[in-house]
Design brief:
Layout lengths: L2 E2 L1 H8 L3 E3 L11 E7 L6 E8 L2 E7 L17 E12 L2 E8 L3 E7 L1 E4 L2 E3 L4 E4 L16
C-alpha cells in the first residue's frame, strides 16, 4: 500500500485516543502523535503526521472563543477523537475533529501521513460512527 484515502484515514482515527497535547504544533509547524484504537478488542497504533500546519483553532463546542493552544489538562488526560473529518482543498487539507464531542480542533495543512504513508484523494469525509469494516491501513512501525 503506497497511499491512504480520505475515508480510510477518518475511519482509522475515529474514536482513537491520543495524548491531551497531541495537537500542539512544533516550531516548524508540524503536528505528530500516536493515536490508539481499542475498538477491535486489541490496541491498534496509528502514527499521525501533519506538515505545514496553519489556521489552527481549538474551541469549546458551544463557544465562539478560539485559542491557538489547548486548555491546560489535568494529569494523564487523554483526548478521544469522537468525530474525525478531512477535506481536500486547493492548497492542501482541512482537518477537524471533536474530542469527546465537546471541543472542536480544526486546522489546515499541506500534507498528511498515516503510519508513514501519504494520505491522498479528493472530496470530503466526516466519520461520526464506527465503520462497518476495519479500514485497510499500513501497519504502524511502532514497537
Amino acid at each position: 500500500m503506497t497511499t491512504v484515502g480520505i475515508r480510510p484515514f477518518c475511519e482509522a482515527l475515529y474514536c482513537t485516543h491520543a495524548a491531551w497535547e497531541a495537537f500542539t504544533a512544533t516550531a516548524d509547524r508540524r503536528i505528530a502523535f500516536t493515536a490508539v484504537a481499542t475498538t477491535s478488542g486489541h490496541e491498534d497504533f496509528y502514527l499521525v503526521e501533519f506538515d505545514d500546519v496553519r489556521d489552527f483553532s481549538w474551541r469549546e463546542d458551544n463557544s465562539l472563543s478560539i485559542a491557538r493552544t489547548p486548555p491546560r489538562p489535568h494529569p494523564d488526560d487523554r483526548l478521544e477523537l469522537s468525530d474525525v473529518g478531512l477535506e481536500r482543498e486547493r492548497d492542501g487539507w482541512r482537518f477537524w475533529c471533536e474530542p469527546w464531542y465537546c471541543r472542536v480542533i480544526e486546522f489546515r495543512c499541506a500534507t498528511i501521513r498515516l503510519n508513514g504513508v501519504l494520505v491522498v484523494g479528493e472530496g470530503k469525509w466526516l466519520q461520526d460512527e464506527l465503520p462497518g469494516d476495519q479500514p485497510s491501513i499500513p501497519p504502524s512501525t511502532r514497537v
